[in-house]
Amino acid sequence: MDSPFSNIIRKYQSTFHPVVKMEPGEKLLTLDLSEQNRSLSDEVLADTNRFAGWINQQLEQAGCRFAIGGYRENRKVYQTPLFAAEKPGDEPRTVHLGIDIWGPAGTPVYAFMGGMVHSYAYNKADGDYGATLVLLHQLDGMAFYTLYGHLSLKDIQTLSAGQYIIFGQPMAHFGPPLKTETGHRTCIFK
After folding, report:
1. Chain-wide mean pLDDT for the chain?
2. For residue 85, what pLDDT is reported?
3. Rounded distance, CA 39 to CA 21, Å?
4. What are phi and psi of 151, to 5 degrees?
5. Average pLDDT over every residue of 16-31
6. Could you read off the pLDDT of 98-112 as tens digits, one per residue?
7. Paired residues of 37 in beta bridges
8. Which pairing describes strands 130-139 and 115-123: parallel, antiparallel, or unpaired?
């Protein structure tokens, strides 16, 4: 059964601006980052540089500039020590709660709809979001948030809480992954 939020998003989806602009007819690589993907080894998942290299290799082999990773995907990476429960009794997360978009550092990120800057931070721990922006939106009286991670640090340094971001505004750029010079991703969460 669909949630009220799902119904509202579907109602307005034709009005949303693309988060990343692609060329007409450009191919998008869909990545499988689930535990069923045998080509994604524990060694690759344990190292940010290797993981970025693996993503770049997948993009190159497919002849794509951008890749997308799935929502509600049971991810193998969440089974690595990097994502272990922080405190005794904490339940570790295994399901990905967002949509990842990988592409070249410097790629503009656009506001899919207007929203207010709720918060921003630089989360620099290995495996964390890096430069992160959270926007507050509202549709049909329902408030919800979107999270954009792995952005350029210089972009979030110009923001302030309460600032309004307008529909279609270029609000940030993909930043380089922490600890490496190539590849990148941004994640969007509801």
Report:
1. 85
2. 58
3. 29
4. -90, 175
5. 95
6. 888 999 999 999 999
7. none
8. antiparallel
Separation of alpha carbons 182 and 186, rounded Å: 14
Beta strands in 62-177 (DSSP E): 66-69, 98-102, 108-110, 115-123, 130-139, 142-151, 164-165, 170-173
Q: Using CA atoms, how far apart are residues 92 and 104, in angstroms rounded to an integer?
A: 31
Helices (H) and strands (E) in the chain, counts: 4, 10
pLDDT band at 83 (very low <50, low <70, confident <90, very high): low
Strands 66-69 and 28-31: parallel
Token pair, residue 154, equals: 């210089």
163 close to 117: Cβ distance less than 8 angstroms? yes
Cα(173)–Cα(118) distance, integer angstroms: 18
142 against 49, higher pLDDT = 142
